[in-house]
Specification:
Helix 1 packs parallel to helix 4. Helix 7 links the parallel strand 6 and strand 7. The chain is globular, with a radius of gyration of 17 Å. It contains eight helices and seven strands; from the N terminus they run H-E-H-E-H-E-H-E-E-H-H-E-H-E-H. It has one domain: Rossmann fold (3-Layer(aba) Sandwich), CATH 3.40.50. The chain has 220 residues and is α/β, with parallel strands linked by helices. A seven-stranded parallel sheet has the order 3-2-4-1-5-6-7, with helices on both faces. It is 38% helix and 18% strand.
């Protein structure tokens, strides 16, 4: 008997998109700006969130996705902000259904909600989590060709944050080349250069957050 191939991807993504829209509509009603952070492991997502938390305080909350442990959530909680942990148990990305469950644990109404996705530049790019903006992080030690190797993450993002700029003199990373590669894929990308060690770029990133919030919620 001939085998019948069943394609599941379309159904899974459609179901995810419906739940993501539910998340987006709910948080928009609550006037919460949701930002989904994508990066490879070690690019500095948690460190960047810690730096932002020092400025935003309780206005900010984070949903943290990790394959195992709640170490990153514990790091963020030390800064006095809410951090809801999602342990995927092996899944290489977050899905809208996971975020929907995590929102049940969220207390109050933070102004800014960040979703720290699982460290991976491939799988997370395909899943809408209900965010209003998506940031992709690229750290200087990774190399400037990552946009070409993992195009979907850069194609689907609104912002590129180049992290660990303090290491540029010590690693083979061409900032202009990285930006050119990224913009060849997505000309509308906003690009920020940051270092949590020196503080470079954090003020500009905070201003971008405020501007985005005011654009979405002009009457807030």
């Amino acid at each position: 008997m001939a085998q019948k191939r069943v394609v599941l991807e379309e159904g899974i993504l459609k179901s995810n998109d419906l739940l993501a829209q539910k998340v987006r509509e709910d948080l928009r009603r609550r006037r919460i700006l949701v930002t989904n952070l994508l990066s490879s492991p070690g690019a500095g997502k948690t460190a960047l969130l810690e730096a932002l938390a020092q400025n935003l305080g309780p206005q900010m909350a984070v949903i943290v996705g990790d394959v195992q442990t709640r170490r990153d959530a514990e790091r963020l909680e030390r800064h006095g902000i809410q951090a809801v942990q999602i342990v995927t148990g092996g899944t290489c990305h977050l899905e809208a259904r996971m975020v929907l469950r995590a929102l049940e644990e969220l207390q109050g109404t933070p102004r800014y909600l960040f979703i720290e996705n699982v460290g991976n530049l491939v799988c997370p790019a395909g899943f809408d989590l209900g965010e209003q903006q998506r940031w992709v992080l690229l750290s200087t030690p990774e190399g400037d060709d990552k946009p070409l190797k993992y195009p979907e993450a850069f194609l689907t993002s609104h912002v590129l944050v180049i992290t660990k700029m303090d290491l540029v003199p010590h690693v083979p990373f061409d900032v202009d080349q990285a930006e050119a590669y990224a913009r060849s894929l997505n000309p509308r990308l906003r690009i920020f250069h940051t270092s949590v060690i020196t503080g470079e770029g954090l003020e500009a990133l905070l201003a971008h957050l405020e501007h985005t919030y005011r654009s979405l919620f002009p009457d807030a």
